[in-house]
Structure formats: structure tokens, C-alpha cells
Amino acid sequence: MRRNLLLTTVCLVASAFVARADPAADVGAAAKKLGENSYSWKQTVEAQFGGGTTEGKTSKEGVTHLTATVQDNTIEAVIKGDKGDKGAVKMEGGWKSVAEILAEDQQGPARFLGRMIQGFRAPATRAEDLAGKSKDLAKSDDAIAGTLTEQGAKSVILMGRRGGDANGPTVNSASGTVKFWVKDGMLSKMQYVVKGNITFGGQDRDVERTTTIEIKDVGTTKVEIPEEAKAKLEK
């Protein structure tokens, strides 16, 4: 009798624990904890167009210094705010604010770069954003995995660019998956895969992109910003 009662109690406790489990909330908490610290990160993008690597250092105050390598080009940028609110890029003639780049270059590659910086999300913020755009998040082996909503996949494919109107690209057949790794209650890695078709400028292009972000040196990373870049962050 006592054994049956004990088993029943254990089952009830286990059921209550499962009912309270919320993978999305776990990801959000792990991302928030990461954002409360400084950290270094490496992003690797595999794609038929625009693949490359980015290495960054983000302070707990929300300042990021990053270096991106795309094909044979290296881009150095500094961003203030975890959503690309203020940014500066090192150009041939020196550092320029994103506002200056967008004002000077109406259609060229520099303008595209400026828009990309505006769409930047620090890894901790990006994880929270992706979790909010996912469905069916659940524990899977050593990670928390799920499926992006169609709108979520579209926004990831556009990478912060405006879409869906006469002046911007349109995304069709968008889909995607996402995985988060949590260690000691803190985000340590994430990976997301998106697929779709972009229509822009009268041309169609299929897109398939895998992005992997690995986190390291949490709490010990120091972010050093060039003085010229600091001045541009306020513009």
C-alpha cells in the first residue's frame, strides 16, 4: 500500500513538472543570462550566396565589435545597442556611421552594408527573437529544437531588410528550423536553417542558409573600441 502511494506521488510530481516545462521560456532565460555578461562569439554562415564567418565581442552594456569575412572581403564594425540602433563601419577613408553611409550611398554595396548593420541582433537578443518566432520547441538530445513559423522564416531570410512592398524583396515558400544549446543555464550555441524563394528586381532566387553561432569566454571578454569609431556611434 505504501509502495503504491509512493509511486502515485512520484508520478503526480513528474506530471506536474512536465506540465510546467516550457522550452521557449528556458531559451529566453538562457539568452537573458548570457546578455547580462560580456561574451565572445563566432558566427558561420553556409549559403550559396553571402556565406562567410563573423567573429564578435559583445559587452554587457550592449556594445559589439565585430569582424566579418565574406569571400575575400573583411568588414570591421562597431555597434551600440543589441539591435543595431547605432553603428559604425571602417571604410577605406576611415570610420563612418551607418547614417553617413546611408546618406552618401543610395544604391551601392555600402548602403547594403549599412542596412545589414541596422538589422544586427546580438546573439543573446537574436536567440530570444528566434524562440519567439518558433513553434513546437522541445528538448531534442542535447538541445532545444523547433520549427520557425512561416513569418519567422521570412524575417530571417530577409536579415532585417524591408520586404513585401514595391521597393523591397518578396519571400515565398519560407520555412526553417532552429536549435539552441544551453549549458549551466546559459545559451552556449544556436543554429538555424532557412529555405525559401526571394523575388527582387524582377528576378527569382532560391535561398538555403545555415547559420551557426558559438559562444565562448562568457564574463571574461573585454570589448575594445577604436576612438574614431566611438565618435561615430553617436551620429
Distance between the termini: 74 Å
Number of domains: 1
- Model regions low in confidence, pLDDT < 50 over at least 5 residues: 5-20
Strand content: 35-45%
Strand order of the largest sheet: 6-5-4-3-2-1-11-10-9-8-7
CATH topology: outer membrane lipoprotein receptor (LolB), chain A
* CATH structural class: Mainly Beta
Q: Number of DSSP helices?
A: 7
Helix-strand pattern:
HHEEEEEEHHHEEHEEEH
Please tell me the overall pLDDT.
85
Percent helix range: 25-40%
**Total count of strands:** 11
Alpha-carbon Rg, integer? 21 Å
Largest sheet report: 11 strands, antiparallel
Shape: globular
Record keyword descriptors for this entry.
about 40% strand, outer membrane lipoprotein receptor (LolB), chain A, about 240 residues, 7 helices, alpha+beta, eleven-stranded antiparallel sheet
What does this structure look like?
There is one protein chain. The chain has helices spanning 2-20, 23-35, 98-104, 109-118, 123-132, 150-158, 227-232, and strands spanning 39-47, 52-58, 63-70, 73-80, 86-91, 94-97, 134-140, 143-148, 170-183, 186-200, 203-216. It contains 7 helices and 11 strands. It has one domain: Clam (outer membrane lipoprotein receptor (LolB), chain A). It has 235 residues and is α+β, with helices and mostly antiparallel strands. Helix content is 31%, strand content 42%. It has an 11-stranded antiparallel β-sheet with strand order 6-5-4-3-2-1-11-10-9-8-7. The longest helix has 19 residues, at 2-20.
